[in-house]
C-alpha cells in the first residue's frame, strides 16, 4: 500500500510541481526572450489557473466516462508533451498550452485522489498524496540548471515530467475504480463565504508562486524550501488539522497566508525563507 501511495504522489509532483508551479522558474527566461510584461506573464498564469478550474468542474463527469484509471494515466502521460511544446512558438501557443496543462493537471490531481480513496486510504495518506507536489518543486530547479532559453527550459521540464509519469504505471493493476459520486439536490449558498475565502486564498498563493522568483536570486534554495514544506503536508499539517479541527485548521492557514505575504517587507532570500516555509499550508 505504501509503495502505491508513493508512486501515485508522482502525479501531483508532475502535474502541479513541474507542470504548474515551475512556470515561475521559466518566466524570467520568457520575459527576456519574448519581451513579456508582468501583465502578460500573469495572464499565462491565469490561463493555467482557468484550465485547472474548468478541469476540476468537469473532472468527475469526464473521469467517470473515461474510467478513473484510464483518465488519470492519460492526463498524466500527456503532461510531458504539453510542457515540452510550451516554449516552442511564442506567446499564443504558450497561452493555449498553459490552459490545456491546467485542465489536465486537475484531472490528474482529482483522479489520483479518487483512486486512493477507493483503496481505503486514510486522511494522512491523502495528505501525503497532496504533498507530492513538493517533489516536483524540489526537482524543477535542478532540471533547469544551464537552461538559457524558453525552448530548452520547457523541453527539460517536459522530459522530466514524462520520465516521472512512467513510474505510476506500475500501480495500474492494483488500482480499482471508485464508486460513482453521489448525486443530489442542494444549494451552494451555505458555503458561499467559504468559496469566496478559498478563491481569495488561491489568488494569493498563485500570485506568490508566479512572481516569487523576481524577489530572490537563489531559486534552487527557495524551491527546496517550498518543496520540503509541501512534502511534509501529510505529516505536519494533516496531524495539526486532526488536532484542532476544520475551523482551527482554516485559521492556521489564514495566519500562514499573512506570514507568507512578507516578501514585500524584507527584500531577498532572508525575507522569503519564512514565507516559503509557510506557503505549503
What does this entry look like structurally?
- This protein is mainly alpha-helical.
- The chain has helices spanning 2-8, 10-21, 23-34, 38-66, 68-85, 90-118, 123-130, 133-143, 150-166, 192-211, 219-231, 233-260, 269-278.
- It is globular and about 50 Å long.
- The protein starts with a helix and ends with a helix.
Structure summarized in a few sentences:
This protein is mainly α. The protein contains 13 helices and no strands. The protein has a single domain, classed as Up-down Bundle (Growth Hormone, Chain: A).
Note the topology.
Layout (H helix, E strand, L loop, with lengths): L1 H7 L1 H12 L1 H12 L3 H29 L1 H18 L4 H29 L4 H8 L2 H11 L6 H17 L25 H20 L7 H13 L1 H28 L8 H10 L3
Helix pairs in contact: 2-6, 2-8, 2-9, 4-5, 4-6, 4-10, 5-6, 5-9, 6-7, 7-12, 8-11, 11-13, 12-13
Fraction of residues in H or I helices: over 70%
Distance between the termini: 26 Å
- Order of SSEs, N→C? HHHHHHHHHHHHH
Q: Do you know the CATH architecture?
A: Up-down Bundle
Q: Extract low-pLDDT stretches.
A: none
Derived structural class: mainly alpha
The shape is globular
The share of residues in extended strands comes to under 5%
Within CATH, the superfamily carries the name MFS general substrate transporter like domains
CATH class: Mainly Alpha
Summed up, the helix count is 13
